[in-house]
TrEMBL record, chain B:
Gene3D superfamilies: lambda repressor-like DNA-binding domains. One of its GO terms (molecular function) is DNA binding. Keywords: DNA-binding. InterPro entries: Cro/C1-type_HTH (IPR001387), Lambda_DNA-bd_dom_sf (IPR010982). This is Putative transcriptional regulator. It comes from Devosia subaequoris.
Amino acid sequence: MYEMTSKEMMAWVQLLGVVVVCGWLAWDALNGGAVGTTAAIAQKLLWAVGAMVGFNIVGAIIGTILVSIAQREELKDEPADERDHAVAARSLRNSGIVTSIVAALALIPLALGVDANLAIYALFVAPVIGGTINAASELYYYRTM
Amino acid sequence: MGKGQANVSNSIRTLRFHAGEMTQAALAKQVGVTRQTIVAIEQGRYSPSLEVAFRIAHAFGVPLDEVFQWTPPGPDAD
């Protein structure tokens, strides 16, 4: 039987939060929300960051309740042991590599003269992708090591 | 510590059986790791640190080589 730990549940919540918030941003961009002043775009992305933080807090509470009901056992966050540290280190490494690559790639269109507002999006997208890779890596390593 | 190696095996399941069907949770508590880590070690997915390996052996009251066995890689291995 698949038994989900608190750390895995949080990784799923983080992934779901990214999907929801990026879905909202994509929908907004398709409706002309991707253009505007630098300040306006930065404010929107700040709201997106806030939404992700809020989603993670609420998602953690709801997720804990739902998983506890499904597993018929209270889901507790146990203290991290050496395997947790190993998983976290590998996931963080993957996240760092991807964040660096995305941030570096964002310089290419800027160098080609694309609208400088792209840099604001890159500031948002690079760490979000890095966080997503971190969460996905944790889920992968917890199942394979 | 690190990802489990194919040539490292263990007898934790057998030792738990001989220890009065000790649960993974009870062993985890004695060793000071999570139950998921004991599951991963038992299934050979994760090789523990030397300290945790000694703690597991101590929990069963047996020498380390009764818990973990290592087979040298064959001549074809890289």
